[in-house]
Amino acid sequence: MADQSFDGDRLSGALSRETVKKNVAAIHISGKLTLLQRKLSNVLLLNAYDSLTSARSHTIDARTLAMMVGYNSNDVDSLRASLRALAETVAEWDMLDEQGHQEWGVSALLSFAKLKNGVCEYAYSPALAQKLHDPKIYALINVKIQRNFTSGHGLALYENCYRFVRTGSTGWWSLDIFRKLMGVDGSSYYESYKHLNAKIIKPAVAEVNKSSDIIIEPQTRKKGRSVSDIRFIIKENPQMAMFQIDDSEGLRNLAVYKALRGQGVSDRLARQWITEHGQDYVQEKLDYVAGQGEVKSSVGYLRAAILGDYSAPETTKGTVQKKVDPETQAKLDELQRAREAEKAAEDAAFKARAAERRERAKHLDIVETLVSRRNPTQKDADKRLFVSRLESDLDREHFRQHGWRSALNAAAIISFWQELEPDAFAEDVE
After folding, report:
1. Does residue 168 sit in the same domain as residue 90?
2. Burial class of residue 259 in the structure, from the number of CB atoms within 10 Å of its CB (0-12 exposed, 13-18 middle, 19+ buried)
């Protein structure tokens, strides 16, 4: 789960910049989680995302959960300890609602969690579930990328920076807030910026830049001689293809892909297996399963063959058939459902972001039309008034370069013009 900062925003002007900041950085969750606990919270959210606001609780096979996070599947004690830690972790939010009213709230990260008969059941409080389900507030972390991280500080920094990838900067955090996000608040050793930089910032930045789909650069500012605040400039990693390989059309043309689909394997799962294991290996397992006769679940059995590397050893009497007992079959089926749920959550988040981009472009088209109708004096006055409301040098510079099409300031621009020309957006709002 992501650790988010709180901004000291003011209720002034169009509330545009404040609303954007609160939507992006509304939820703060204690940074004092281990690497595995942090990964666990992300996997639980991904598993629950589609039914986050409609279901009272969510379930996932415990062995599947352990495998996805990186636990030994038999280490139940560690899984229990991590679930307990999440239930004891406090999530706090402080934001503006749609009417501009301030809302503060607090909740346990998990309202409950239990392990029974090999299944993990857990729930979020209704208020927190509503906040987490809003893609403007919580950007889903790519579980494939989080597996690359080997330190909790690196993953914590990635999560906090990833929320701001579209704006290009985290904005300024006080060092007190930053220490809290990294889970080192209360340590006298890290009160020294020299120690904080050497032991936390530099290693975490290096891991983010090496292991993820973004590249970040820290910047600091001082009060007197001491560093008081830090922010991170964010760019997409030019090596992003390493993390987002998706030669969908090429894979779909392969005979092995078509054979998998013919067995009832989903599109995403078929491409995932071919990408992870290679088409020859997958074809070998297809041939193996075909030689087993009728099975209860061909997809579940095929999954078992692929993950377990089933093969038919040669004997004097021919081929030895490897069967799957009903209990294992059920767990494998649950594993498939969990992975497909993960993919569905990723798809939902992607669609939400795409819809948000389309809506923003539509609004900016209206703004462009409004600007074109203004005379030169009005245009100059509009720009001066708008720039006076921007708080950071980064926002002002981006507006100077891109004008009313500044993506970094899009929400603020739209809100500004909705104040000036509310009728122009009336039909769009309906």
Report:
1. yes
2. middle
CA distance 341 to 353: 18
Strands (E), 62-186: 90-96, 102-108, 112-116, 119-123, 173-174
Instruction: Look up residue 262 and give its two tokens.
Output: 């013919």
The residue written with tokens 């497909």 in the block is: 340
Domains: count for the chain: 3
Edge-to-edge order in the sheet of strand 58-61:
58-61, 119-123, 112-116
If asked whether residues 409 and 275 sit together in one domain, one would say: no
- Structure tokens, 188: 């006298």
Number of H helices, E strands in the chain: 20, 11
Instruction: Please give the single-letter amino acid code of residue 189.
Output: Y
Domain that residue 27 falls in? 16-241
**Distance of CA 222 to CAs 6, 174, 227, 230, 347, Å?**
20, 10, 4, 9, 42
Q: CA 183, CA 35: separation in Å to the nearest integer?
A: 11
On whether residue 173 sits in a domain, the answer given is yes
In this prediction, residue 415 carries a pLDDT of 87
Report the length, in residues, of the chain.
Answer: 430
Residue 131 domain-assigned (yes or no):
yes
Q: Is the whole model's pTM more than 0.70, yes or no?
A: no
* Residue corresponding to tokens 């389309």: 358
What's 30's domain CATH number? 1.10.10.10
pLDDT, residue 11, reads 25
Strand partners, 318: 315
Contact 233, 217 (CB under 8 A): yes
Instruction: Look at residue 252 in the predicted model and tell me its pLDDT.
Output: 76
